[in-house]
Amino acid sequence: MNKPNPIPPKIALGFFLLLCTFTSYAQHVFRGTVADYETGEVIPYATVFLANTTFGVSADEEGRFSLAIPEGNYEVIVRMLGYEGLTYNLRTSEIQPQGYKLMLIAADEELDILDVKESRDPAWYRNLDEFKRNFLGTSETAQSCKLLDETVLRLDDQSEAGVLKVSAIDLLKINNPKLGYRIDYLLKEFKFQAREGYVFYAGYPFFIDDSTLSKSKRKKVEKRRDIAYRGSLQHLIRSLYEGVTEREGFVLRKIYRIPDPSKPGKYMDQLDTTPISPDVLVKKNLEGEVFLSFQDHLHITYTHERESLAYLGSNYRGKPGNQVSIMHLEIDSLKIYPNGSYDDPFGLLMEGYMAWERVGDLLPIDYGPEQ
């Protein structure tokens, strides 16, 4: 058995709002009209999508929309420039056949989309580069991503010392050519603390498949998607849910963090060399719901792929080892779903390789890997 690789000292943390799950291929029709809350007038061309999936549609000129979706539980996002976004939970078992009227409230403040070249100083561009590195990531796939409209971003490095905060006044559109998606990302929050190496981001991505790809390019994209999936957090959660972590290449061990007497405020990691079965970590209640629960930290080694050279850095001269991550639960137990999602975006903290992979390597939860 390979000796686990040490975790780099810098900790990176990424949170996703993975709040939806689908359990079968039964189709349901979600339909309705988008309208102004104050006037009742229809809002044409609003965007309606299910978070973290490829299921979405634009309303027509009469504000009407219709979307066929698999059975499950979803977070519905409704967006239109000039209006506050609408987010709510939808269970297909409770869909009303007569449809819905989704009411949007006009934004209080006038939107101020400015010309980047005329309105941004050098500090803004430095902050933008910092945001892209920590939000999109630094993998080869992430570096190919492009923000299609940077003017929707609001970059703030003044309100809190040492912290970069980023918000967006509209959907952040990201082109990911290597994975064949355009991502419309509703960014709820982003914070980067450089000194601590801490990154927090939360939001609702919508994946739009590139339907213009040729057959040969489609084959390359599918291969890259499969590589991005293998060893990802989504892959791990699915494996834990199904109880097949070892078969899927994950070796799980407990790791204990103890204070370092020589360095006040620091800690040392003590690794238990005995692998853990997913049965110890995952429990099912009487209703059939599945929960992940453990104390301390979980050391995760993915043995089916080596570390990326982009992860190791340009100065690394050794041989890449297995991908190593550390997981910590911020809550007593975390409900997980068969598609690799989980219900509390603030309940899970990741370090190491899985934390290094950011939005640029993200896949929709309806993605199915090649077997």
What does this structure look like?
The strands form 4 sheets. Strands 1, 2, 3, 4, 5 and 6 form a 6-stranded mixed sheet that branches. Strands 7, 8, 9, 10, 11 and 12 form a 6-stranded antiparallel sheet that branches. A 5-stranded antiparallel sheet has the order 14-13-17-18-20. With 371 residues, the chain is of the alpha+beta class. It is globular, with a radius of gyration of 22 Å. The chain folds into 3 domains: 21-104, Carboxypeptidase-like, regulatory domain (Immunoglobulin-like), CATH 2.60.40; 116-169 and 171-209; 230-361, no CATH class. Helices cover 16% and strands 37% of the residues. The protein has helices spanning 116-119, 122-135, 140-143, 215-229, 233-242, 278-281, 309-312, 353-356, and strands spanning 21-36, 47-50, 56-58, 64-79, 86-91, 100-104, 146-147, 153-156, 163-168, 172-176, 181-193, 198-209, 250-259, 267-271, 282-284, 290-292, 297-306, 322-329, 334-336, 348-352. Residues 1-19 and 113-117 have low confidence and may be disordered. The protein is built from 8 helices and 20 strands.
In short, what is this structure?
The chain is an alpha+beta fold. The chain has three domains: 21-104, Carboxypeptidase-like, regulatory domain (Immunoglobulin-like), CATH 2.60.40; 116-169 and 171-209; 230-361, no CATH class.
Core attributes:
single chain; 371 residues; alpha+beta; Immunoglobulin-like; 3 domains; six-stranded mixed beta sheet; six-stranded antiparallel beta sheet; 8 helices; 16% helix; disordered N terminus
